Amino acid sequence: MPELPEVERARRLAHEEAVGKTIAAVEVQEDNIVYVNVEASDFAKRVQGKAVVDTGRHGKHFYLLLKDGPTILLHLGMTGNIRFEGKSCFQYRRGTEEQTVWPPKYWKFIITFKDTGTGVIDNEGQTTCRMAFTDPRRLARIRLVEDVLNEPPISKLGFDPILSMPSFEEFYMKLHKRSAPIKALLLDQEFSAGIGNYMADEILYQGRIHPAQPSKTLTVDEIQDVTNFAVSVNADYQKFPTTWLFHYRWNKGKKKKVTTHDGNEIIYETVGGRTTAIVPAVQTLRTVTKVKNEKHSPQPAKKVNADGVVASRPNLIRSPHKVEMEDKAVVAKRPPEAQIPSLDENGRLSLEAAKKVT
């Protein structure tokens, strides 16, 4: 399923190709599931002749802002995509979409844009480009809205990790009363918009956090690191660091043992209603014992490094509970390869570098 990085890639492509152009023609396929609160024929009439002035995104939704008209709001669902005629399209990891066929299979609308820029010259001497919205499984959604950020569905979504990541203090207040498994919270779009199954597993693996751990143990930088890097490489999974869990998580069901790049076994459990890839060697489920009448505030916590020395971790949230490790000896003597790698050597993006990306 396309997640925040893949949706951002689609938005960027639409921005490059459509902004500044006018919608000259619209072809539609009737589909009362994919089109929401608007008939396909009415969709075509309402956007015809409108100029695209900007694009935007929040979570897994992206949109085209039209001058003096409604906003085209799109959600890719499980297999949705956009295609521009004559250009190679984005392929999901297991995608097999034919790149050269036009119109593409399973199209829901095809919009013809006209401008004086570069593109295909039509019979009237004007430059055109064509965009198709496709969806084989009919789980994508097409809407027309008037106030895109202040009406559903976007108004009901949580913060966007790229656009509106809360401060450390705000993030702490969102978490410290929650006890749901952290994987379930990450997938809750009303909490954080844009994170899906593979990104949630990657965030937790990079943070050395067990997916079933209570939510109050997550940190700000772990969300930003993974999300920012995936966006920075335009969601091209071939450019994801080879140390990422992403490259190894897809082998569930194979007879041989599934391992990470360094040989640690990957197991699969259901957490938050979703199949979850876990690396027990570095993701230990901790027991939590509540401490009565303990005053607490979002102070930095401490972390034990490979040599057993306590080192500070500025952005790690201190829970209002005492956390007891199931095996303190294992944590205290964790091997060097289990430590969180840096971007330069092992694919981690520093918080300072992440800010530069955004």
Automatic annotation (TrEMBL):
One of its GO terms (biological process) is base-excision repair. GO terms for molecular function: damaged DNA binding; DNA-(apurinic or apyrimidinic site) endonuclease activity; lyase activity; oxidized purine nucleobase lesion DNA N-glycosylase activity; zinc ion binding. Residues 328-358 are annotated as: Disordered. Gene3D superfamilies: 1.10.8.50, MutM-like, N-terminal (3.20.190.10). Residues 2-140 form the Formamidopyrimidine-DNA glycosylase catalytic domain. The keyword Plastid does not apply. It catalyses: Hydrolysis of DNA containing ring-opened 7-methylguanine residues, releasing 2,6-diamino-4-hydroxy-5-(N-methyl)formamidopyrimidine. It comes from the Eukaryota. The keyword DNA damage applies. Keywords: DNA damage, DNA repair, DNA-binding, Glycosidase, Hydrolase, Lyase, Multifunctional enzyme. GO terms for cellular component: nucleus. Coiled coil: none annotated. PROSITE patterns: FPG_CAT (PS51068). It holds the Pfam family Fapy_DNA_glyco. Belongs to the FPG family. This is DNA glycosylase/AP lyase.
